[in-house]
């Protein structure tokens, strides 16, 4: 399983997940986050991109009573180059870190990629280091952020391994088969991996960060398809004396070809990659971005476009921060005033500087900077 994956019928599947006990992020909760932080809610919250939660009320209760928490998210490094969809959880997590002023741990599941993909351990670890550079380029505070590779950290932290073993003891083979669809032909590494993704949910996995303090609650921003891992984790937590992690779920990020198609790192035309040039970005959007427009200009002017399926508009929902501008584009496209080519032009003009700025920041991330982020250490915060 990847930390961030595009799936078909993403929004429909997302709301079906609410049946499993998560709660909708409603206006009341968004307003409460604004009151607690004193900051305008992130546009991912305002637009329903992060739409569902588990126990966010508890996080806010603790925060309002001067009790801190920590953030945990991750990345499955399946390739050297990340795409813009991979930025979504990190953009939001960076905002959470800033407005709540809390520490963050980022898990790079290179062990998972070795188990699931046709690659060597060395290649998986190399991808982890390269992906770490893109993550760092998002602007995380080095004094409050610990990034770790499973292949590195598991051998150096007794607390981390102890929690893995505790989770493993309390989850049966039948349970993981039911949750994750494992079969008798899957290697035992896959079967035991969910416990490794669960362990960072517990502060005792990071004694160097929390200075011996345990039972600090964790908040996990992630895509909705990661929820099965953490439903399992939340079920186990009370049985091993740990607080349940809270979660914030996002919708899926669509491939350029539309929500019904799968985004793939092996298909360079399925998304915009963080290594793309301005020319490549323009070509991809113009050639591959699925349109919600009509077959002819005459029909489009008469009937208007469909923003619900138009990928250019979907991408703007993620990356155009100006609410008023986005609403103007929606009305103009829906009425037929704005043509598909014109909407694509807006997206191109939005994505080109965004990617260029990311590339410039990434150039400043040296191997030494990566080493600093990935060195186990106490982080600068107060509990």
Automatic annotation (TrEMBL):
<dbReference type="InterPro" id="IPR014729">
    <property type="entry name" value="Rossmann-like_a/b/a_fold"/>
</dbReference>
<dbReference type="InterPro" id="IPR002306">
    <property type="entry name" value="Trp-tRNA-ligase"/>
</dbReference>
<dbReference type="GO" id="GO:0005737">
    <property type="term" value="C:cytoplasm"/>
</dbReference>
<keyword id="KW-0547">Nucleotide-binding</keyword>
<dbReference type="InterPro" id="IPR002305">
    <property type="entry name" value="aa-tRNA-synth_Ic"/>
</dbReference>
<dbReference type="GO" id="GO:0005524">
    <property type="term" value="F:ATP binding"/>
</dbReference>
<keyword id="KW-0436">Ligase</keyword>
<protein>
    <recommendedName>
        <fullName>Tryptophan--tRNA ligase, cytoplasmic</fullName>
        <ecNumber>6.1.1.2</ecNumber>
    </recommendedName>
</protein>
<keyword id="KW-0067">ATP-binding</keyword>
<dbReference type="GO" id="GO:0006436">
    <property type="term" value="P:tryptophanyl-tRNA aminoacylation"/>
</dbReference>
<keyword id="KW-0030">Aminoacyl-tRNA synthetase</keyword>
<comment type="similarity">
    <text>Belongs to the class-I aminoacyl-tRNA synthetase family.</text>
</comment>
<dbReference type="Pfam" id="PF00579">
    <property type="entry name" value="tRNA-synt_1b"/>
</dbReference>
<dbReference type="GO" id="GO:0004830">
    <property type="term" value="F:tryptophan-tRNA ligase activity"/>
</dbReference>
<keyword id="KW-0648">Protein biosynthesis</keyword>
<dbReference type="InterPro" id="IPR001412">
    <property type="entry name" value="aa-tRNA-synth_I_CS"/>
</dbReference>
């Amino acid at each position: 399983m990847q930390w961030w994956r595009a799936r078909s019928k993403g929004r429909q599947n997302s709301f079906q997940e609410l049946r499993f006990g998560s709660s909708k992020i409603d206006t009341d909760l968004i307003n409460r986050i604004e009151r607690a932080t004193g900051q305008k809610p992130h546009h991912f919250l305002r637009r329903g991109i992060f739409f569902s939660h588990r126990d966010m009320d508890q996080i806010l209760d603790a925060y309002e009573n001067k009790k801190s928490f920590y953030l945990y998210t991750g990345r499955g490094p399946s390739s050297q180059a990340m795409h813009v969809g991979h930025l979504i959880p990190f953009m939001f997590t960076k905002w959470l870190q800033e407005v709540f002023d809390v520490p963050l741990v980022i898990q790079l599941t290179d062990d998972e990629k070795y188990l699931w993909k046709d690659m060597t351990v060395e290649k998986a670890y190399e991808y982890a280091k390269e992906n770490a550079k893109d993550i760092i380029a998002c602007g995380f505070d080095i004094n409050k952020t610990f990034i770790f590779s499973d292949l590195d950290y598991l051998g150096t932290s007794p607390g981390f391994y102890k929690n893995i073993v505790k989770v493993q003891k309390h989850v049966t083979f039948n349970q993981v088969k039911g949750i994750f669809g494992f079969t008798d032909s899957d290697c035992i590494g896959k079967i035991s991996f969910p416990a490794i993704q669960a362990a960072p949910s517990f502060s005792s996995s990071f004694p160097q960060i929390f200075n011996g303090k345990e039972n600090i609650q964790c908040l996990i921003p992630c895509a909705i398809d990661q929820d099965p891992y953490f439903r399992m984790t939340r079920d186990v937590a009370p049985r091993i004396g740990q607080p349940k992690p809270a979660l914030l779920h996002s919708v899926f990020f669509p491939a350029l070809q539309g929500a019904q198609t799968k985004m793939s790192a092996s298909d360079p035309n399925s998304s915009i990659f963080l290594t793309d040039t301005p020319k490549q970005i323009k070509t991809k959007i113009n050639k591959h971005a699925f349109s919600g427009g009509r077959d002819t200009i005459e029909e489009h002017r008469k009937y208007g476009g469909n923003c619900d399926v138009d990928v250019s508009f979907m991408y703007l929902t993620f990356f155009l921060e100006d609410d008023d501008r986005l609403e103007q584009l929606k009305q103009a496209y829906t009425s037929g005033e704005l043509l598909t080519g014109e909407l694509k032009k807006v997206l191109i003009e939005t994505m080109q500087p965004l990617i260029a700025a990311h590339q410039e920041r990434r150039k400043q991330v040296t191997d030494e900077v990566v080493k600093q982020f990935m060195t186990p250490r106490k982080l600068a915060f107060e509990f």
